[in-house]
Design a protein that fits this description.
With about 240 residues, this protein is an alpha/beta fold. The chain has a single domain, classed as Vaccinia Virus protein VP39 (Rossmann fold). Helices cover about 45% and strands about 20% of the residues. The protein has 7 helices and 7 strands; from the N terminus they run ααβαβαββαβααββ. A 7-stranded mixed beta sheet has the order 3-2-1-4-5-7-6. The N and C termini lie far apart (about 90 Å).
């Protein structure tokens, strides 16, 4: 009982510390910190479900916008043997915390070289590795429409054919901004939603609501289509008289 209590107290203390860290970093820079609280366990599970759905096959996985690691902690135990994980985080303080998480995580003892933290923007990530799963925690509604399009194009470029992208969007943000933001900000937000809607229309395979999160959100799953072979050129000699 004492062990459970101590473990519970440590987890609660860590989550409270991460909550304050999110608020502080959001006040400093909304470009790299768009959440007001770490992702809930329910959200983390939904975002990382595609990793588990692949079973025991080794995977290449990318997590973008990992923050303080609330989703990363759910993701790492779900990695199958031989899988590789790249974690991208542009915020220097969050990236340092993620490096510490990777060094000390018990599931990575002796194998932390399979997980790398990259302090950069995902659109600047230098890699030739195709990914089976991309988990995105980026705050799209805080970005300029052109940035969102660049990031989504990069995601689709990085995915294997048949690979899955998961990301979340907070519920009700359009209405909240319409009440409190300037007209220019409202137009920007609407343009971002229009861009995301285009990708959802072309690639979405599912959407789920997560009410147990602050604030509640939707989780989207998108899939890069498997390439279809080009049809064979017609035989122009077919049917010709001999």
């Amino acid at each position: 009982m004492d062990d459970w209590t101590n473990s519970h107290d440590r987890a609660l203390s860590r989550r409270n510390a991460e909550g304050w860290m999110f608020l502080i970093e959001a006040a400093r820079d909304l470009r790299t910190t768009g959440a007001i609280a770490p992702s809930s366990k329910a959200l983390a599970r939904l975002l990382t479900d595609p990793v588990q759905e692949h079973g025991a096959r080794p995977l290449n996985v990318l997590e973008a916008g990992a923050g303080t690691g609330s989703v990363t902690r759910t993701l790492i135990p779900r990695l199958s043997a031989g899988s590789r994980l790249d974690i991208v985080e542009a915020n220097a303080r969050f990236a340092a915390q993620l490096c510490h998480l990777v060094r000390t995580h018990p599931r990575l003892a002796g194998g932390s070289d399979r997980v790398r933290v990259h302090r950069t923007l995902v659109e600047h990530l230098d890699t030739s590795r195709p990914y089976d799963v991309i988990v995105s925690g980026l705050p799209f509604t805080n970005f300029a429409p052109a940035q969102v399009e660049t990031i989504m194009d990069r995601y689709m470029e990085l995915l294997q054919p048949g690979g899955t992208l998961t990301y979340f969007a907070y519920r009700g943000t359009r209405y909240a901004r319409a009440l409190t933001a300037s007209r220019a900000e409202t137009r920007r937000h609407h343009a971002v939603e229009e861009i995301l809607g285009g990708y959802q229309k072309r690639y979405a395979i599912g959407r789920w609501s997560v009410w147990g999160n602050l604030p509640p959100c939707h989780v989207w799953q998108l899939r890069r289509p498997v390439s279809v072979p080009a049809p064979a050129a017609p035989d122009i000699t077919a049917g010709m008289a001999r």
